[in-house]
Amino acid sequence: MERGGCVYILTNVFNTVFYIGVTSDLFSRMAEHKDKVYPKSFTAKYNCSKLVYYQMYANIEEAIGMEKRLKKWNRDWKIKLIEKDNPMWKDLYSEEL
Length: 97
Description:
Organism: Pedobacter boryungensis
Protein name: GIY-YIG nuclease family protein
Family: Belongs to the UPF0213 family.
Helix content: 40-55%
Domain GIY-YIG: 3-80
Strand content: 15-25%
């Protein structure tokens, strides 16, 4: 049985830092980021808990592949990707999940 996956982008309240991650359970993973379950992590250190982009995939391998590609993108490309579906930079965790 294949397991789906999700690639996501978090930022801080000032939209100055990006974190790109992948998970098979976005809702649970976001709760971990919001609660700072891992206090020494990048997202806790830079207060990245605002979900501004996510994309679901049929299997986790596709999501991992996209995560690796996104991490190589320059900042402007990431901003355009976010603003295509989320021009107001809303926290999609509170809006959609």
